[in-house]
Write a structure and sequence with these properties.
By secondary structure, the chain is mostly helical. It has one domain. Helices cover about 85% and strands about 0% of the residues. It is built from two helices and no strands. Helix 1 packs antiparallel against helix 2. The longest helix is centred in the last third of the chain and has 25 residues. It is elongated and about 45 Å long. The two termini are about 20 Å apart.
Length: about 55
């Protein structure tokens, strides 16, 4: 797997986490613990994507 395809895969996962966060926030009683975990995962992915993009340059 090339670096660019890996970045794309991570970007796709990041987008799916955004959707999960949005879905959880719109539930009648959102679970704060679930939201916190999803947001942590999303942040880790964002940081990894940024790190990998710097490697390409």
């Amino acid at each position: 797997m090339g670096l660019e395809s890996h970045i794309q895969e991570l970007t796709d996962r990041h987008y799916k986490l955004e959707e999960q966060i949005r879905d959880e926030q719109h539930r009648p009683h959102p679970d704060d613990i679930v939201l916190a975990e999803l947001k942590k995962k999303k942040l880790r992915l964002k940081e990894e994507i940024q790190r990998l993009k710097l490697e390409i340059q």
